[in-house]
Design goal:
264 residues, 6 helices, Aminopeptidase, 7-stranded mixed beta sheet, alpha+beta, single chain, 2 domains
Length: 264
């Protein structure tokens, strides 16, 4: 039986089925302060084959001072020194796509974020640049409070453009009697249903996906998006008429991460 998880116990039982093998991610970031006030920063992860840029933010008052470029150069060159020669990131229509294109990033795929905006996955081939301004220090495993402050600054910026965005978490679990044997976690973001966690027996995927799509429709979602490196989930999405928007080889390690989208 598939049901909405209504209590914390069911959600915990679902999360207990998730593979907890540590990912080969090395958190890294650079932060710039002026009079002890954060005015810009970049945060991401070094993986065996990629630099993944998770967050970049610069204070509006400092956006014409080349600070964003300096931050990106610092983290890119830190990746190159580790032998990492590729970088990728995601950005939305209202964010910084033209800026990243000027830095050499190109779009490899896009998916619907809201009725007004798309999200774009961008990649860049890195190279060693001896002339690059890398005076900014990149911290490995930066302080959590510093990262949270940076991400909050970006969140405030995003909400200016996505006013009224309502994010609702949803968990579906499969029960065998009273035992949770599988399920999915997703976020309903206005018109987008974004799948975050798939756990348990993969033969349950068709029923889980159908139930999730029905729930998404009932909540006015028009799209479902899956981002996964699980080969069973990838094959399911291909059989189930999901559109493959892009793939990132050797991420997070030797797997391929694929983003799928389906219009409901």
């Amino acid at each position: 039986m598939i049901t909405l998880a209504q209590d914390e116990q069911a959600i915990q039982a679902l999360m207990a089925l998730v593979d907890t093998t540590p990912l080969p991610f090395e958190p890294a970031g650079a932060f710039v302060y002026e009079d002890d006030v954060l005015i810009g920063g970049v945060y991401g992860y070094f993986t065996p084959h990629w630099l993944y840029v998770d967050t970049l933010w610069v204070s509006p008052a400092n956006r014409s001072q080349n600070l964003g470029t300096r931050l990106m150069t610092a983290v890119e060159q830190a990746a190159v020194r580790r032998g990492i020669m590729r970088a990728f990131l995601g950005t939305s229509d209202f964010q910084a796509r033209p800026f990243y294109e000027r830095l050499g990033y190109s779009v490899i795929g896009s998916y619907t974020l809201t009725e007004q905006f798309d999200n774009h996955i961008m990649v860049k081939q890195l190279d060693h640049n001896e002339e690059a301004n890398t005076t900014l220090k990149v911290k490995i495993n930066p302080d959590a409070e510093e990262v949270e402050q940076l991400q909050f600054k970006l969140h405030v910026h995003n909400t200016e453009y996505m006013e009224g965005l309502d994010i609702q978490p949803v968990s579906l679990v499969v029960l065998d009697g009273e035992r949770v044997i599988g399920g999915v976690q997703a976020s309903l973001m206005n018109t987008l249903c974004m799948v975050g966690v798939v756990a348990g027996e993969k033969t349950l995927l068709p029923s889980l996906a159908q139930t999730l799509e029905n729930h998404a429709r009932e909540n006015a979602c028009t799209h479902v998006m899956w981002r996964t490196d699980d080969e069973a989930v990838i094959q399911f999405c291909r059989r189930a008429d999901y559109v493959e928007r892009c793939s990132i080889p050797q991420f997070p390690s030797e797997q391929t991460t694929v983003i799928f989208e389906k219009r409901l």
